[in-house]
């Protein structure tokens, strides 16, 4: 499957322009939404604005609240408090069928006894559309997702990727104000999942519909989303682009959860340079980026990605922050080599470097050169 097989650009492509849905005027607004089950607080006063036409990924570990928030927006799990507005309309007290949301679930929920055409048109029949209009709309949707030739097949006769496209076509057929996807790629094998994530983003952005995409896969969120909402224990830890989340994590949880990271315990002090704090590393003081302004010295974590560390057997150049370590694990990964090393204090660090001809042997004493221009200080909790 090539990356542009679902849709073509409107200037010169073959996608039917009438299939492109109108961009929602005001997106989605979430104001102080909370949800509990008994004494367990699952969502804790969530505030979030999603712009019209924006594709936002909810990312987090199992149990963080991301799927509950999606289902609360859809109306399946009504909020205990707070407001939800979709395209400027308060839907907080409305049932799911009146919220005008297109839904795609993990299992796709296709009707096995219906053809592709009947599955796509199901929501239109429920809404009382005329047969002629249903047929025209279904044709548009099948053309949009490149399944016209398979219109008379049943779900059991289709691949997982094709079934996923049927589910998306059915969700879009009703012309929703928002599209909500709950881990829609989780049932696909790894290779197909990697291919489809690009196609899915291309399709959604070509339509211009406000979309929420729930996933626990970090790479998937980075590929698909305009922005990522990182959730942890019922709250939003950080909202930002993939670059912002990866390069400038605001909490220790985000630093550890998104990609791999080394979190070094340090004492940070206020700096005269805005946005930075002063820390002592390997016996020398440096100003590094800080996720929050400091008024006094306090314990923090210095987050430094494995690829921002150079491992060498040579002495460290003067003025370069370096740590003496011992190699405890070495792995060849093709273009890169992955090491785990142990400091004299017993701390374990991860290092990722371009692979050389021979791996450094386990037990080898090395120096780690730290690129503190890429580091960021995050709070301990």
How does this structure look, described?
It is a single chain. This protein is an alpha+beta fold. It folds into 2 domains: 17-247, Rossmann fold; 260-378, Nucleic acid-binding proteins (OB fold (Dihydrolipoamide Acetyltransferase, E2P), Beta Barrel). It is 22% helix and 34% strand. The chain is built from 8 helices and 20 strands. It has helices spanning 66-74, 116-126, 131-144, 160-173, 190-207, 218-224, 242-247, 252-257; strands at residues 28-37, 40-50, 55-59, 81-86, 89-90, 101-104, 178-182, 210-215, 227-232, 235-240, 262-270, 276-281, 284-290, 298-304, 309-312, 322-332, 336-343, 348-354, 365-370, 376-378. It has a 6-stranded mixed sheet, with helices on both faces. Strands 11-12-13-20-14 form a 5-stranded mixed β-barrel. A 5-stranded antiparallel sheet has the order 15-19-16-17-18, with no helix packed on it. A hairpin with a 3-residue loop joins β16 and β17. The protein starts with 27 loop residues before the first strand and ends with a strand.
Chain-wise SSE layout:
Layout: E1 28-37, E2 40-50, E3 55-59, H1 66-74, E4 81-86, E5 89-90, E6 101-104, H2 116-126, H3 131-144, H4 160-173, E7 178-182, H5 190-207, E8 210-215, H6 218-224, E9 227-232, E10 235-240, H7 242-247, H8 252-257, E11 262-270, E12 276-281, E13 284-290, E14 298-304, E15 309-312, E16 322-332, E17 336-343, E18 348-354, E19 365-370, E20 376-378
Parallel strand pairs: 3-8, 3-9, 6-7, 7-8, 13-20
Antiparallel strand pairs: 1-2, 1-4, 4-5, 9-10, 11-12, 11-14, 12-13, 14-20, 15-19, 16-17, 16-19, 17-18
Helix pairs in contact: 2-3, 2-4, 3-4
InterPro entries: AAA+_ATPase, ABC_SmlMolc_Importer, ABC_transporter-like_ATP-bd, ABC_transporter-like_CS, Mo/tungstate-bd_C_term_dom, P-loop_NTPase, Transp-assoc_OB_typ2
Keywords: ATP-binding, Cell membrane, Membrane, Nucleotide-binding, Transport
Domain ABC transporter: 28-258
């Amino acid at each position: 499957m090539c990356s542009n097989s679902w849709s073509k650009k409107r200037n010169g492509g073959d996608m039917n322009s009438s299939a492109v849905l109108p961009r929602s005027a005001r997106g989605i607004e979430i104001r102080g939404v909370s949800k509990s089950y008994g004494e367990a607080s699952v969502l804790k006063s969530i505030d979030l604005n999603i712009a019209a036409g924006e594709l936002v990924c909810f990312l987090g570990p199992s149990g963080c609240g991301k799927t509950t928030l999606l289902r609360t927006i859809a109306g399946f799990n009504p909020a205990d408090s707070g407001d939800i507005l979709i395209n400027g309309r308060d839907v907080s007290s409305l049932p799911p069928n009146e919220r005008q949301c297109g839904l795609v679930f993990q299992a796709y929920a296709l009707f096995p006894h219906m053809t592709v055409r009947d599955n796509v048109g199901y929501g239109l029949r429920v809404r009382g559309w005329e047969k002629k209009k249903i047929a025209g709309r279904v044709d548009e949707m099948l053309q949009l997702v490149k399944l016209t030739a398979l219109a008379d097949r049943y779900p059991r006769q289709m691949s997982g990727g094709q079934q996923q496209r049927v589910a998306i076509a059915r969700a879009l057929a009703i012309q929703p104000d928002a599209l909500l996807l709950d881990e829609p790629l989780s049932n696909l094998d790894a290779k197909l999942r990697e291919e489809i994530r690009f196609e899915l983003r291309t399709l959604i952005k070509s339509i211009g519909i406000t979309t929420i995409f729930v996933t626990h896969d970090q790479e998937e969120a980075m590929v698909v989303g305009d922005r990522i909402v990182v959730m942890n224990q019922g709250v939003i830890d950080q909202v930002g682009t993939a670059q912002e989340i990866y390069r400038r994590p605001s909490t220790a949880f985000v630093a550890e959860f998104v990609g791999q990271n080394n979190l070094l315990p340090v004492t940070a002090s206020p700096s005269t340079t805005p946005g930075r704090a002063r820390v002592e590393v390997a016996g020398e003081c440096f100003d590094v980026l800080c996720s929050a302004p400091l008024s006094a010295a306090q314990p923090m974590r210095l987050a430094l990605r494995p690829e921002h560390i150079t491992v060498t057997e040579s002495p460290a150049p003067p003025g370069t922050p370096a740590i003496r370590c011992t190699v405890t694990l070495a792995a060849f990964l093709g273009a890169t080599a992955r090491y785990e090393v142990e400091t004299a204090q017993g701390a374990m660090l991860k290092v990722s470097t371009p692979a050389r001809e021979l791996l450094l042997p386990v037990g080898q004493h090395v120096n780690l050169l730290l690129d503190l221009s890429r580091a960021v200080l995050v709070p301990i909790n």
